[in-house]
Amino acid sequence: MSHSHKDFDAEDQFKSGFDISYIRRFLGYAAPQKLYIILALVFLALSSATQLITPNIYRKSIDNYLVPLYTFIPSDHEALEKYPELSKVAIPAGEDAVAVPTSFLEKNKDISDSIKDKGENHYIFKLESYDGTHGFVYGGNWFVPDKEFADIDPALLTKIRGADITGLKRMFCLFLLVLAVHALSDYFHRLTLEIASQRTMYALRMALFEHLQSLSVSLFNRTPIGKLVTRVTNDIEAINSMLSTVAVQMLASAGMFIGSLIIVLYINWKLTLVSLAVLPFCVVITIVFRLIVRKVHRELRRILAKINGVLTEEFSGIKMIQSFNQQKRRREEFAEVNASYYKAGFKNVICMGVFGPILDLIRHFGTALIILYGGICVLDGDLTLGSLMAFITYFGHLCNPLMQISNQITQLQSSLAASERIFTLLDTKNEVAQPKLPVIVGDPKGEIEFKNVDFSYIEGEQVLKDVSFRIEPGKSIAIVGPTGAGKSSLINLVCRFYDANKGEVLLDGVNVKDWSNEELRKHISIVLQGTFVFSRSIYENIALGDPTITREKAIKAAETVCANQFIEKLPHGYDEVMAERGATLSAGEKQLLCFARALAHDPRILILDEATSNVDPATEHLIQDAIDKLMIGRTSMIVAHRLSTIHKVDEIFVLDDGKIIERGSHAELMAKKGAYYDLYLLQFSRRI
Ligand SMILES: Nc1ncnc2c1ncn2[C@@H]1O[C@H](COP(=O)(O)OP(=O)(O)O)[C@@H](O)[C@H]1O
Ligand SMILES: [Mg+2]
Q: Is the CB of residue 326 less than 8 Å from the CB of residue 318?
């Protein structure tokens, strides 16, 4: 077995030496979707930006309209001279004090820090509103200390704060607008991203399917089919998250984290440091959790694969299981894997159940810290209430991306592993490689020649040994010999399902390696012992999509090989759709159908490998006529174990242990009294 086949079996974890080129190759498949990816990124940026804006709307609503506070400072304070912008916003508030907006101080930390002796916070209203009891009046303004605010008559408040209510309404509209932009950009981001990734997956699935189709039969003998199916379905699905996670979501999470961080630092860096004190705990717990969950998931996957294995064997072997009364044993076997799956699933649930609450706890603790320390700042006049509110929301925006990034890393790893498996499979060389410049033969005469051919499936176990022969165009030969002699293998070489290890297989004097597979197989029709019926209608099974095979031609072919008898008995005749693998037909009926298929395709070369082994002697006798007719004008190779069916061939090869030990016509070989003679006598005596 060549090394390359082991590689793509690599199990679900990706190895340390991951080849970065897989990502590049994946991006190569995604590249045609550039436009959608760029659009997705633009919409994503927009939706993130709107998300970052919303807390600021809360903040403005609270600070400007709900608690528009002013801080008192001494009117002779040196800061007023030092900072002209401060004196610009200052409102005279008595003989020895001025009032400046608290939000202004918050925005200009250096000014705020230079004023140590800040006074109380006040609301400022127009003099006309003065209720005569609370606060004091100065220079056309009514000053209400923060503490007395609650005592003012509510009816009066509503009246004098009309402007604030209008402001709030404006903020509400702005909020709605931002919300709408957010929702729309989020929708379009998801839509464009999904279009890009679905199209990429489509292209990858096609590429993988086409590649698998071209691979030699030997790969499919060696590789469990389920595994190949998984590559084309699940693994492509997994690799897809590479685009959505790597290219987009991680970027979004990182952007959200950094954006929020910058904003909270801007609002109040000390408070930021305090609140970030909980982040290391979040990070550590997330990492620990991820390690545990990865182990649990790996176990889950492993057991699931085992369950799938047990099920597949159960269903495909149901006949044997029932006939040997294996149900109880199989049930016990299933109960065992089922129990371990249950246990692993439970572990998973526990992990998830513990992790979420712990992280929440830490986050809430962080929020509590913010309220405590931020609250003190608010009381000190270093922070407005609105900023504190906004800060709490931004803190959430800081924590969420951390958790998301951890999930994304897990996803990224599994998509990297999938990409490795997919691309190694895409890289598997076709063992029957196609020639770069196939020789064009045009209309071949149908001459087959073997020149000193050696062949083995497994190194060291030679199946064909130095086989040489030539079949003239239009002649027919039969190959006889014991089971395992290499008859089917010889035919495999003619159709180039495999390549000879040594020597040459020639069709019309051209090595089959120099033919394009498509051209080569166009001229060969083959009927095997175990034939394959597609889950299509009978007619489609005969024509196989060849437009030159009309319905009439198909029916005529079926009649020639006596397949019409059973077909006509089917409820829908030639339109009857077959079950998977033709499960509802008998083995003999399937063979007849394949005879019709071979005949309808009118090949230059006809190959029958124990093709009549499943039909009864009477039917065999019937189709023998058809075969005789079929052979006229075509080169034919017939493997048969009933020697009575091969009287009419031009030459008979006796194959034994990979060597042609005798050849000649029936009469010659009988006269020779060698291996063929013995074989014949054996069958002849048994028949009687
Ligand atoms: N796909 C395969 N992989 C490995 N060994 C094989 C394969 N197919 C057939 N063989 C072996 O090759 C030998 C010849 O098989 P085959 O040509 O099918 O014999 P027969 O003459 O009965 O048609 C047998 O020993 C068989 O076990
Ligand atoms: Mg065989």
A: no
What gap in Å lies between CA 129 and CA 131, rounded to an integer?
A: 6
481: tokens are 């010999």
What single-letter amino acid sits at 680?
A: Y
**Nearest ligand, CA 530:** 2
Taken as a whole, the chain contains a residue count of 688
- The single residue listed with the structure tokens 């031609």 is 553
User: Quick one: what percent of the chain has pLDDT higher than 70?
Assistant: 97
Question: Ligand 1, atom 7: nearest CA belongs to which residue?
Answer: 457
Q: In whole angstroms, give the CA distance from residue 115 to residue 74.
A: 9
Give the integer Cα–Cα distance in Å for 198 and 240: 8
pLDDT over 80 at 227, yes or no: no
| Confidence band for 146, pLDDT divided at 50, 70 and 90 | confident
Beta strands in 431-483 (DSSP E): 448-458, 461-471, 476-480
Decide: 148 and 102 in contact? Cβ < 8 Å.
no
Superfamily of domain 524-602: P-loop containing nucleotide triphosphate hydrolases (3.40.50.300)
Give me the long-range contacts of 81-88 (CB less than 8 A, separation at least 24).
82/114, 83/108, 83/111, 86/111
Q: Which ligand is nearest to the CA of 460?
A: 1
3-state secondary structure of 145: strand
| pLDDT (tens digit per residue) in 469-503 | 999 999 999 999 988 999 999 999 999 999 999 99
pTM tops 0.85, yes or no:
no
Which residues' Cβ are closer than 6 Å to ligand 1?
221, 457-458, 463, 483-489
Phi, psi of 607 (to 5 degrees): -125, 125
In sequence order, which residues have a C-beta less than 8 Å from that of residue 84 and are 6 or more positions away? none
- Report the alpha-carbon distance of residue 378 to residue 102 in Å, rounded: 10
Average pLDDT score over residue span 188-208: 92
314 touches 330 (CB < 8 A): yes
Spatial separation of the C-alpha atoms in residues 66 and 69, rounded to whole Å: 9
Gap between the Cα atoms of 135 and 142, Å rounded: 7
Residue 659 CA, ligand 2 centroid: distance in Å: 15
Residues 636 and 608 sit within 8 Å (Cβ to Cβ): yes
Residue 468 and residue 655: Cα distance in Å, rounded? Answer: 12
Domain boundaries, the chain: 67-153, 524-602
DSSP 3-state of 470: strand
Residue 609 alpha carbon to ligand 2 centre in Å: 7
**Residue 32 to residue 21: CA distance in whole angstroms:** 18
- What is the Cα–Cα distance from 345 to 351, expressed in whole angstroms? 10
Nearest to 402 by CA among 287, 272, 295, 294: 287
Structure token digits, residue 531 = 């034939």
Give the ligand with the smallest distance to the CA of 484.
1
Could you tell me the distance, in angstroms and rounded to a whole number, from the CA of residue 462 to the centre of ligand 1? 10
CB 553 within 8 A of CB 580: no
Q: Please tell me what DSSP assigns to residue 581.
A: G
Work out whether the CA dihedral 584, 587, 588, 590 comes out positive or negative.
positive
Could you tell me if 348 and 297 are in contact, meaning their C-beta atoms sit under 8 angstroms apart? yes
Residues 449 and 470: their CA atoms lie apart, in Å, by 4
Q: Quick one: which of 1, 18, 122, 103 has its CA closest to 415?
A: 18
Q: Report residue 186 as tokens.
A: 């989020």
Question: How many angstroms separate the alpha carbon of residue 612 from the centre of ligand 2?
Answer: 13
**Model confidence pLDDT, tens digit, residues 526-541:** 888 777 889 899 999 9
